[in-house]
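Re: [ENG-882] Designed sequences occasionally contain unexpected residues at chain ends

Forwarding the minimal case from QA. Structure tokens:
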């Protein structure tokens, strides 16, 4: 695939570069519908893979120049591109009868929109797209039971300067020279887990629960038979399988091939 930005970046004005990225996103947004061909949606995902690569490359160039505002702008492009790609993969996975993986991509798209709006003032419109995604969540997926895990740590450090978070001037979730400030937990230990209505991460949830026939998936409603030694006893406390913690803070940055896994090979061979 030819890449106009790589070939012509030395000749393009800043406005032309911005238009290049905006047009790539707008092109992909035409396929954010259930009825669109999965093959065409996959092609758009691959195009966004390349667009994201270019956004990252330009961001690092701006960091090297010490241009914080422009570096944060292209951080926003990374987030926005990843959000659109995740939403596309949500539709692909739903049509492949993979609702749990589709759920994760919906959440990734929501996270990408939120981060884009935080990255730079040029992406405040992404808040509107996040609201649309939350409406889709209510219409397409059944209500979920969310989990919140609590931890205690020896200390909390800043990802930007490396100092103790309580002693530095950086704020979690704010962009600094093309990257977000995050809090790094040193030697974290689990403290508690609870069911909540508004979790920090919607990927943390009850996935399935025990029935007399096996574990019933909360999204697909399919039942997986018990392994040897497992059984259901009427009247005992409800047992469930949960996702307690996700370590991937930026799931919308994962490549199309990594997210789709074996389904990628099946789609690409058609």
């Amino acid at each position: 695939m030819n890449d106009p930005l790589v070939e012509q970046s030395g000749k393009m004005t800043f406005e032309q570069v911005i238009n290049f990225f905006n047009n790539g996103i707008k092109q992909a947004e035409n396929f954010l519908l259930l009825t669109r061909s999965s093959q065409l949606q996959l092609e758009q995902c691959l195009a966004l893979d390349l667009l994201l690569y270019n956004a990252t490359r330009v961001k690092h160039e701006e960091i090297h120049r010490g241009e914080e505002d422009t570096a944060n702008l292209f951080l926003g492009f990374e987030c926005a591109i990843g959000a659109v790609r995740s939403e596309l993969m949500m539709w692909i996975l739903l049509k492949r009868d993979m609702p749990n993986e589709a759920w994760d991509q919906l959440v990734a798209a929501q996270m990408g929109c939120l981060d884009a709006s935080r990255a730079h003032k040029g992406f405040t419109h992404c808040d509107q797209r996040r609201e649309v995604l939350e409406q889709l969540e209510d219409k397409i997926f059944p209500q979920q039971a969310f989990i919140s895990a609590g931890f205690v740590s020896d200390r909390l450090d800043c990802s930007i300067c490396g100092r103790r978070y309580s002693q530095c001037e950086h704020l979690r979730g704010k962009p600094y020279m093309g990257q977000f400030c995050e809090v790094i937990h040193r030697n974290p230990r689990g403290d508690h887990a609870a069911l909540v209505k508004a979790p920090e991460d919607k990927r943390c949830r009850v996935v399935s629960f025990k029935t007399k026939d096996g574990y019933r998936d909360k999204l697909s409603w399919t039942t997986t038979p018990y392994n040897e030694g497992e059984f259901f006893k009427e009247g005992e406390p409800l047992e469930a399988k949960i996702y307690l913690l996700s370590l991937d803070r930026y799931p919308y940055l994962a490549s199309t091939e990594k997210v789709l896994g074996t389904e990628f090979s099946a789609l690409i061979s058609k």
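QA comment: On inspection the terminal residues look reasonable. The chain has eight helices and ten strands. Proposing we downgrade this to a documentation issue.
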